[in-house]
Amino acid sequence: MEELLDQNAGILHVLPNILSGLIKHEPVYDILLDSVENALIRSQLLEMEIDRNVTELSFDQDKAALLSMLLGNSFINALDLVFNSEISGPLWNISIVPVLKRDIAHLLAKLGLCWKNEQLVKGSLQFIHREEGSHTHVDLSNWYCECQEYQSKYIDEMQVINIRGDSFLEQLFQNMKSKPLSPLPICTHIIVILIVKYNSTYFNI
Questions:
Q1: Beta strand pairing status for 113-116 and 55-59?
Q2: What is the pTM assigned to this prediction?
Q3: How many C-beta neighbours within 10 Å does residue 179 have?
Q4: Over the stretch 62-91, which tens digit does the pLDDT of each residue have?
């Protein structure tokens, strides 16, 4: 049993510690300077007087690097969904709906700017239309997701594991309707919900 617990230590102990504090507010101006590739936009941003108090959700790059090593592409995809999805519902029926990606045009609009004829032009904030993608439902209270990535994690060699402890995840696994199996299956969508859970002050859920 100790071997099984050690096998799942990354999810049970390491993951929560790193996830806490991953999300932060950052000035939109700084996000643009870090992400824009167009040299003309960058040079004009540097010359303009821009309100640095306008912020957008961002992430701690050091924590993100550690989580990428721990979870691979699943974390990278989860982080993308966190910033580009509508996430709603109670823990037992959470809906994740992808929308159009947050792009340079969206960030510029947050600052009352748009890129037109090779020039940054000031204007009123625009509404960025975002089309919804397909819904994915997650039942975090039973550590379940309907996606194919999650379903593929179930293999014949899995064993029942008894998890004890007082942390949020340990309590969650103790209260599940069925016994958890090891190795604990995890997918992009469950990681999304955990990011939101451990950074809840930034999300309306």
A1: unpaired
A2: 0.85
A3: 13
A4: 999 999 999 999 999 999 999 988 888 887
